[in-house]
Amino acid sequence: MTEVEERIEDMRYEAQDCQLCGLCETRTNVVFGEGNPNAPLVLVGEGPGENEDRTGRPFVGRAGELLNECLLECGITRKHVFITNVVRCRPTAPGDNGKLLNRPPTTDEAEACVRAWLEPILSTIDPKVILCLGGPSANWVIKKGFKIMAERGKFFESRYAPYAIAALHPAYILRQQGEAYDQARATLIADIEAARKKVIEARKEPPRTLF
Length: 211
Ligand code: URA
Description:
Layout: H1 3-15, E1 34-35, E2 41-45, H2 50-55, H3 62-73, E3 82-85, E4 92-94, E5 100-102, H4 107-125, E6 129-133, H5 135-141, H6 148-151, E7 155-158, E8 161-167, H7 170-174, H8 178-204
Parallel strand pairs: 2-3, 2-6, 6-8
Antiparallel strand pairs: 1-3, 4-5, 7-8
Helix pairs in contact: 1-4, 3-8
The chain binds uracil.
């Protein structure tokens, strides 16, 4: 194991007992994140849904399948990247007939999880490029008030990586139909491809150190 892999595994172990926000009371599993901790590209989603909560793995439901397909179109597998989320536990709200629904994390939940886990994960992996999946992720990783429709597909400097770019969230794409679906899916592929190319460019740049 590399030192980075060890640090990530230690953090994963510690996160299993996290009680920093109320989501610990309703979660089945902590969804820490997975993939290659030595990867130059990290993907950040919003938070676990039902399938992720059940399995403890990020992006394993329908949105995850679409993400896998789009990554593969760019020659990328889940082993090439690290995938995590703004929050590590599934936010739920009561729905009809006792079924739990997904909801967005509150600002307090997101803030707690970003400070305790997302920031340390990103600073340990130290990726060249971060690909934010959806506006909420870009809001935490790139800048507050990020406008996903106007600003997706563009590179920004982030506190966590020299380059960060946002793409439409695969769950949003799944809610589109017909031509709108095809167009949205094509933008996700284009944004993944832009991130992939940026990794190659960034690897040629001298390392950004203080001295
Ligand atoms: N949506 C997300 O944002 N993250 C996941 O892990 C799954 C679905």
